[in-house]
Design goal:
heterodimer, A: Pectate Lyase C-like, 3 helices, about 10% helix, B: alpha/beta
Chain lengths: ~250, ~450
């Protein structure tokens, strides 16, 4: 059960009558076995400014585009597995996925928090500009591809080409990283606790200074993890490919 | 060699294979170790709209009175799934061009000119600026592989969304913006360090292939509550298949950009050798739409080397619903203005030849981020010039349409056209002028 809100009027259009009767709150329930993703997203988009309503979504059955385009500080709890782009372009909302997530979970997130309690498929957090994405399990290939400021914490492993062309933000991997980690990375800082199969073009190992240990500790705490920052290694851009030079042609 | 020496008169013969530009390219590559990067589209001679002619009305067709009878020009784009399609007064739209590639003043001028005549402009790689949203009544927001500056607030503020798979100048290539143009503002919008060479991704980061595209379009529709039309733009290479797949994926509008379509910065070898001519792409795109039974239901916008009302009318007659212009719009703003010839010569070019849009030194103030050079472009005046040009293009197309007896530009049809060359006849499936012969379709006898 997500956080229940007690200070909202109980006659709002999305209010679940049973929930209102039982709790005196206006949290909304959507059973996607009968309701449509369209109805859910329309309700989320219709929330008034500043709304912190709590939504509970059941039987997602791997549907795509669940809880996309939210721009309110609502909370959404999803019980089950979701398809592509769950919580895509999220702004402000907190979305909890109690299951696995398909391709592009939290893609282009701007702010808020998305927490996948299971595993995430490829391109998790792709191009996201802000907010925090937590994956308790593993994330597949291209985790954090072209990330632009988001923070991503993965409890397990990440697949190949993770952090590809990552521009800003932090990518934390508590397990191992696959091949070509951080290929063509710009200014994203990557922290890996386990092994790295190989580094991509222009990605190098870098020293862990005090500020890195401090920011990593904050990220791990925000993700609800107790890993020791001292066990991680930092990776980032060597910045040798920022401007094309023919002598670097073999790197591409 | 004296100043007035004439090599041809002296019996010297230039090689057709190793002509002077080829020799210069080899010498330049040997000297610098780097390929040529430039702006614009393909420069080589290609089968184009000049290879088609209209058959005006005659005994068997009634023309419309040139200055008395109406010939409408409006077009509705994107009504297949979206609740709010665009309704444009003219079927000439402004193609996607980024802030970054263009100055803020140029984007403002494009918005002013397009809005004055009731048509749309389009963003580009790097996101939406206040200049263009503020001055464009109808603005198409490009959704690109790089996702630079991609913001859901902008997505919702757009009048249409254009999912970009490629562009005609470089099908299969990503965007490029060299360090000279990555100012603090441009870098900030793209979340990149200032001054670096920016090479955008060529594939979208979170989907691959037509089945994924359908899911991606579904997400964009959900985020915009099914209000906003969704275009899919492809660089012309395999338009028959790509258009079919775009329609299957759920596009409201398909944009097909031929190899004469311009770019802000791309390798010359890419521009000249990858992709197919606009003329060859249109019939294949139309055939795909017709076979799916959605021609005119899913609109087709064609771009790539469209220069005047005749080109517009020919696109419409071949089956397009609208066109998009980029290079022609920049020329209307003031690009390659002869009055700037001395300035162009200072940077090693000349009016009529200037294509170094990548280097940020444009004296016209259009393809630059330099604060001083931008002042050379008056956005109000340039916007007015663009509006003039758009009106002229539209009126020229109306002149042709009336001559063919059409009361609306979208009534133009292939039957109004013939081909001047065998190759254009083969590409367009129009008869060679003066014959009934369509190459590949029998003798016509």
């Amino acid at each position: 059960m997500g956080t229940l809100i007690t200070d909202l009027p109980t006659d709002r259009p999305n209010a679940d009558p049973e929930l209102v009767a039982a709790t005196g709150t206006c949290a909304a329930r959507f059973d996607l076995a009968t309701a449509t993703v369209r109805a859910l997203n329309a309700a989320l988009h219709a929330e008034p400014e500043g709304s912190s309503a709590a939504y509970e979504v059941s039987h997602p059955r791997g549907a795509h585009s669940i809880a996309v385009g939210i721009n309110r500080p609502v909370s959404v709890r999803i019980d089950g597995h979701v398809g592509y782009y769950c919580a895509g372009m999220n702004q402000q909302a907190s979305v909890e996925i109690h299951g696995n997530a398909g391709v592009g979970v939290a893609e282009n997130m701007m702010s808020g928090r998305v927490h996948v309690h299971g595993d995430a498929s490829q391109a998790a957090g792709a191009t996201a500009h802000g907010g925090l994405l937590v994956v308790d399990g593993n994330a597949a290939a291209r985790c954090g591809i072209s990330m632009k400021g988001v923070d991503i914490v993965v409890g397990g492993n990440v697949g190949h080409m993770s952090g590809f062309m990552a521009q800003a933000g932090r990518l934390v991997v508590c397990g191992d990283a696959g091949d070509a980690l951080g290929d063509s990375v710009y200014e994203t800082r990557i922290y890996v606790k386990g092994t790295v199969a190989s580094l991509g073009a222009d990605c190098i190992r870098k020293p862990m200074r005090a500020e890195h240990l401090a920011e990593l500790a904050e990220l791990l705490a925000a993700a609800g993890r107790d890993d020791d920052p001292a066990d991680f290694t930092r990776y980032g851009s060597a910045r040798t490919l920022y401007s094309f030079h023919v002598d670097n042609a073999a790197s591409y | 060699m004296t100043k007035d020496f004439d090599p041809a008169a002296a019996g010297l013969r230039e090689s057709a294979t190793f002509d002077r530009s080829t020799i210069a390219a080899i010498q330049n590559a040997a000297r610098t170790g780097i390929y040529d990067i430039r702006g614009g589209g393909a420069k080589r001679p290609l089968p184009h709209f000049d290879d088609l002619l209209f058959l005006g009305a005659s005994m068997s067709r009634y023309p419309l009175e040139g200055y008395r009878e109406r010939c409408d020009t409006d077009v509705v784009l994107g009504g297949r799934h979206a609740r709010h399609p665009l309704h444009l007064s003219t079927p000439v739209t402004i193609a996607g061009m980024s802030f970054g590639a263009l100055s803020g003043r140029a984007k403002e001028a494009l918005g002013r000119g397009a809005s004055e005549v009731g048509t749309s402009t389009t963003t580009g790689d790097g996101g939406m600026t206040d200049e263009e949203r503020g001055h464009s009544k109808q603005l198409v927001y490009q959704y690109l592989p790089s996702r630079y500056g991609m913001n859901p607030d902008h997505l919702r503020a757009a009048d249409a969304i254009e999912v970009v798979l490629g562009q005609g100048a470089k099908p299969g290539g990503g965007g490029m913006l060299l360090g000279q143009k990555i100012t603090e503002r441009v870098a900030g919008m793209r979340t990149l360090p200032a001054g670096i060479d920016q090479r955008s991704a060529c594939r979208h980061p979170d989907w691959t292939g037509p089945d994924d595209l359908a899911i991606k379009i579904g997400e964009l529709r959900e985020i915009t509550d099914w209000q906003t039309p969704i275009y899919v733009k492809i660089g012309a290479s395999r338009p028959y298949y790509d258009v079919k797949l775009a329609v299957k994926a759920g596009a409201d509008v398909v944009v097909v950009d031929g190899m004469q379509g311009g770019t802000a910065a791309t390798q010359d070898v890419f521009i000249e050798h990858v992709g197919i001519p606009t003329l060859a792409a249109i019939p294949e795109a139309v055939r795909a739409l017709q076979e799916l039974g959605v021609h005119r239901q899913v609109q087709l916008i064609v771009s790539g080397g469209i220069r005047n009302g005749a080109d517009l009318a020919k696109c419409m007659a071949l089956g397009a619903d609208a066109v998009a212009i980029g290079t022609a719009a920049l020329i209307a703003l003031g690009d390659n203005d002869p009055a700037l010839d001395a300035k162009y010569r200072e940077i090693g070019s000349a009016a009529g030849y200037y294509d170094d849009w990548q280097n940020g030194r444009d004296p016209a103030g259009i393809t630059t981020q330099d604060e001083e050079l931008q002042q050379n472009l008056d956005p109000v005046l340039a916007g007015r010039r663009l509006a003039n040009f758009l009106r002229v293009m539209t009126m020229e197309a109306q002149i042709i349409a009336r001559a063919c007896g059409k009361a609306h530009l979208n009534h133009l049809e292939p039957e109004d056209l013939v081909a001047l060359t065998i190759e254009s006849a083969a590409m367009t499936r129009l008869p060679l002028v003066g014959t009934r012969w369509i190459p590949g379709q029998g003798t016509g006898i």
